[in-house]
């Protein structure tokens, strides 16, 4: 499997392929090439760099993406070390000190490469002509079931219809949780700015501008948080509890099948939604606070 190649955001964007990474480029952001695309031509590294890169192609590419000043410094120390050892490759101390960050970035790059590859393979409902394209309408129904608008309208309606203080308390807190989820997901999306998979067709209804970004999946955070909320506050029979959990998993899975998200967007989204519920519990609006806020007797 080819290793992903960290490139400057501008060049990847122009090829319409996306990814994310912490990176140490001038913009602090890397994007990763699609595995199925031919990487753009880049100037060949100078011969001394090739010598230092050895036979490991990943290390070679990482070295080639270094800043020119670091390459020059590396080149000088490399020449010294190879000449003193009669041609045997001996890394200078400076490079040894950078070994750990390199291992982490290679591990992260590999994880993201697997993520892109797996997500592309699993995007079987991304369009009608795809291998499971006939299931796309069903997946879009699942999408609607996890969308913010039906949940907000449903919670507001139940709050309005509820005739007990306990019911109103739960519904108001659910509303608060849904708004909190939209805000937190919006912030993370705006900070990370990972683009949606190239095979995604952007035909979702009612989206915010941050929803052009894919990390994390808002549907996944909402599904995990709402599932925990329902399980904690509704008295449900065992089969229904299983159904609620299954629904959350299916909503998450449908995001990848529809091609809306990469696997890591959904995995992180489910985890984030699960943790968000803890925050909702911590911020729980009590009846006393509710009396002040909505004037309950
Ligand atoms: C009242 C109000 C402002 C409601 C906004 C609800 C809304 C438009 C939510 C966006 C839901 C959405 C499309 C999230 C994107 O989910 P991903 O799973 O694709 O990240």
How would you characterize the overall build of this protein?
With 297 residues, the chain is mainly α. It has helices spanning 9-14, 47-53, 57-64, 68-84, 93-97, 99-122, 136-145, 148-161, 165-192, 218-233, 238-257, 263-282, 287-294; strands at residues 6-8, 30-32. The chain has 13 helices and 2 strands; from the N terminus they run E-H-E-H-H-H-H-H-H-H-H-H-H-H-H. It has a two-stranded antiparallel sheet with strand order 1-2. Helix 8 runs antiparallel to helix 9 (165-192) and helix 11 packs across helix 12 (263-282). The protein starts with 5 loop residues before the first strand and ends with a helix. Residues 147-149, 152, 182, 204, 206-208, 211, 217-219, 255, 260 line the site of ligand LBIIBCTY. Residues 1-89 are annotated as: Disordered. This is Polyisoprenoid diphosphate/phosphate phosphohydrolase PLPP6. Keywords: Endoplasmic reticulum, Hydrolase, Lipid metabolism, Membrane, Nucleus, Transmembrane, Transmembrane helix. Belongs to the PA-phosphatase related phosphoesterase family.
Sketch the topology as an H/E string, one letter per element: EHEHHHHHHHHHHHH
Instruction: Enumerate the spans where pLDDT stays under 50 for 5 or more consecutive residues.
Output: 1-88
Total helix count?
13
DSSP, total strands: 2
Mean pLDDT: 77
Bound molecules: the ligand CC(C)=CCC/C(C)=C/CC/C(C)=C/COP(=O)(O)O
Largest sheet: 2 strands, antiparallel
Strand content: under 5%
Taking the alpha carbons of the first and last residues, their distance comes to 65 Å
């Amino acid at each position: 499997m080819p290793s992903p190649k960290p490139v400057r955001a501008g060049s990847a964007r122009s090829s319409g392929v996306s990814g994310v990474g912490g990176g140490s480029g001038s913009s602090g952001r890397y994007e990763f090439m699609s595995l199925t695309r031919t990487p753009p031509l880049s100037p060949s590294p100078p011969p001394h760099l090739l010598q230092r890169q050895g036979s490991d192609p990943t290390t070679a590419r990482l070295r080639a993406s270094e800043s020119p000043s670091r390459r020059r410094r590396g080149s000088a120390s490399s020449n010294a070390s190879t000449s003193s050892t009669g041609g045997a490759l001996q890394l200078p101390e400076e490079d040894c000190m950078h070994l750990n960050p390199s291992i982490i970035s290679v591990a992260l790059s590999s994880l993201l490469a697997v993520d892109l590859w797996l997500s592309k393979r699993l995007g079987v409902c991304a369009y009608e002509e795809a291998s499971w394209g006939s299931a796309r309408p069903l997946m879009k129904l699942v999408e609607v079931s996890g969308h913010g608008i039906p949940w907000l309208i449903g919670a507001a309606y139940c709050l309005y219809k509820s005739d007990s203080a306990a019911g109103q308390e739960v519904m108001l807190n659910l509303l608060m949780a849904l708004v909190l989820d939209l805000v937190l997901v919006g912030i993370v999306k705006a900070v990370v700015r990972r683009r949606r998979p190239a095979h995604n067709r952007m035909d979702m209804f009612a989206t915010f501008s941050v929803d052009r970004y894919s990390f994390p999946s808002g549907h996944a955070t909402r599904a995990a948080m709402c599932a925990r909320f329902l399980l904690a506050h509704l008295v449900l029979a065992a089969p229904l509890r299983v159904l609620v959990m299954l629904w959350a998993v299916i909503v998450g899975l449908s995001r990848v099948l529809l091609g809306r998200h990469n696997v890591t967007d959904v995995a992180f989204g489910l985890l984030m939604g699960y943790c968000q519920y803890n925050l909702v519990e911590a911020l729980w609006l009590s009846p006393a606070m509710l009396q002040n806020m909505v004037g309950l007797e």
